[in-house]
Here is the input.
Amino acid sequence: MVVAGAAAVTLVEKMPFNDTLYFAFVTGLTIGYGDIVPQTPGGRLVALLIGFVGILFTGLMVAVLVFAVRESLEEVRNRS
Here is the structure.
């Protein structure tokens, strides 16, 4: 998804792919340094989508980890 977002930003913003790939990872990880900023409305829309997907992915990872810890604790309790 990040690579597809970088490709979209490359097409819309006419920037080099290596810059947009860096931008997509920084945006998707919700870091947002601000050193590369989209200038067009299309680029900004893609950046919003990348950031939204990054937030959803982070939430999904946290939910999976919480579920795994809960299952592990329940397994330990059932052994005792």
Summary: The mean pLDDT is 95. Residues 1 and 38 are 18 Å apart (CA to CA). The radius of gyration is 18 Å.
